[in-house]
């Protein structure tokens, strides 16, 4: 670890310790409010509303602790079970969900010991660092103010300039100890919080089942919508053209003896209609599974997409092999949707796509230098990408500040099925 990295780590840990100690002091009133809401819960209106509000505050406090833990590299997933359908806040169904969720009681069990441990460790880390700062700052104050300066004597015993000189190396040592110990104390606090705020094995399994239930329903809905689209495209496109071809050939059969010239003209029209029907079928096949994806894999298919864009797009890929066909198809259509959104909304001059696979995870990044301001909550394009990835336990992250750039990051756990030859 370089001195600069050590210093930044220590200062960051000290700052987080101060913030965490201040938040820990909120745990006691939050716990008191939640207990009051639980006791008054049988009362109509007032009790249920109070419990709903205090439960929201408790979960907010626990989520703040989880976010602070993530800042120091210890992620703590949210353990709460999803709310039941049509359960309004404060209703009996909502209260039953809150009270029967084990994570609610684990949050409550964490509040009091979390307050003691968080405040104690945070204040210790802060006190050692501040004491070291006082020791190192004592000599300059003596040199600047002389015997007039005596305030530090209450904290750091000094009576003359010689003792102030001795305080400098002592203060530097204590400051170094404080900056070294602060990350360790912060890690202890975070790991204790993870014992109670992280989901248990049973809760993790329930969350997994709930997630699989949702993604399975989304996959079934997406499949049904895709089948309806294929049926509609066949009915309105190729099927209608083939019916027209049959009718045209029938008319040509009637005219072939009486008016050969008109029959030849109808046959030419039938050939043109059959060609158009073939084009429609090719477009339909591309929408189901593009031939370029089957022939050249994900990397080649994405490069073909980039060539069709109206702006310059750079594709960087280091895939050493092929992905499983369902994963490959899902990623291809997700990238296509992201690039289509870019073309419609971003007003970009250039774009890029990077594809990287490491340690069983596929990482895909689609970005552009457009105007930014994209919001996953508006429209259905980004939501469609998320649903595609959810079916494979994938995730999507969006970064699009006003003014750009816009970057869509997709991650999927997957394996390479075969190496390149």
Beta strands, count? 7
The radius of gyration computed from the alpha-carbon positions, rounded to a whole number of angstroms, is 33 Å
Low-confidence regions: 148-152
Q: Could you tell me the mean pLDDT? A: 77
Quick recap:
By secondary structure, this protein is α+β, with helices and mostly antiparallel strands. It contains eleven helices and seven strands.
Task: Please tell me about this protein's structure.
This protein is of the alpha+beta class and 421 residues long. The chain folds into 3 domains: 3-197, no CATH class; 203-288; 295-419, 2-Layer Sandwich (Heat Shock Protein 90), CATH 3.30.565.10. The protein is built from 11 helices and 7 strands. The protein has helices at 3-24, 27-39, 46-71, 92-100, 102-145, 161-197, 201-255, 260-288, 291-307, 325-346, 381-390, and strands at 312-317, 321-323, 350-358, 361-368, 395-399, 406-413, 416-419. A 5-stranded mixed sheet has the order 1-3-4-6-5, covered by helices on one side. β3 (350-358) and β4 form a beta hairpin.
């Amino acid at each position: 670890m370089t001195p600069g990295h050590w210093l930044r780590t220590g200062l960051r840990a000290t700052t987080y310790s101060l913030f965490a100690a201040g938040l820990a002091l909120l745990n006691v009133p939050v716990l008191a409010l939640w207990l009051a809401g639980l006791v008054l819960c049988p009362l109509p209106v007032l009790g249920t509303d109070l419990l709903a509000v205090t439960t929201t505050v408790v979960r907010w406090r626990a989520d703040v602790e989880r976010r602070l833990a993530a800042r120091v590299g210890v992620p703590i997933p949210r353990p709460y079970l999803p709310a039941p359908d049509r359960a309004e806040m404060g209703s009996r169904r909502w209260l039953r969900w809150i009270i029967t969720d084990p994570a609610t009681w684990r949050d409550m069990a964490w509040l009091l010991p979390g307050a003691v441990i968080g405040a104690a460790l945070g204040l210790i880390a802060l006190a050692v660092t501040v004491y070291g700062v006082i020791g190192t700052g004592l000599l300059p104050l003596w040199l600047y103010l002389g015997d007039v300066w005596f305030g530090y004597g209450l904290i750091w015993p000094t009576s003359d300039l010689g003792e102030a000189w001795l305080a400098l190396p002592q203060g530097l040592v204590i400051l170094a100890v404080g900056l070294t110990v602060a990350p360790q104390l912060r890690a202890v606090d975070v790991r204790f919080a993870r014992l109670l705020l992280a989901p248990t094995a049973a809760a993790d399994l329930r969350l997994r089942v709930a997630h699989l239930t949702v993604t399975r329903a989304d996959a079934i809905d997406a499949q049904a919508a895709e089948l309806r689209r294929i049926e509609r495209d066949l009915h309105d496109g190729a099927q209608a053209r083939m019916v027209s071809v049959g009718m045209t050939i029938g008319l040509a059969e009637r005219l072939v003896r009486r008016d050969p010239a008109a029959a030849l003209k109808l046959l030419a029209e039938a050939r043109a209609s059959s060609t158009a029907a073939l084009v429609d079928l090719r477009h339909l096949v591309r929408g189901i599974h593009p031939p370029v994806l089957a022939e050249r894999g994900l990397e080649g298919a994405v490069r073909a997409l980039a060539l069709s864009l109206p702006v310059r797009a750079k594709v960087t890929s280091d895939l050493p092999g092929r992905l499983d066909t369902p994963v490959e198809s899902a990623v291809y259509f997700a990238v296509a949707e992201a690039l289509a959104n870019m073309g419609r909304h971003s007003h970009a001059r250039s774009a890029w796509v990077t594809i990287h696979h490491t340690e069983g995870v596929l990482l895909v990044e689609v970005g552009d230098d457009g105007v930014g301001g994209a919001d996953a909550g508006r429209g259905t394009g980004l939501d469609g990408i998320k649903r595609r990835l959810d079916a494979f336990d994938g995730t999507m992250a969006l970064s699009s500040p006003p003014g750009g750039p816009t970057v869509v990051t997709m991650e999927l756990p997957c394996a390479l099925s075969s190496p390149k030859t």
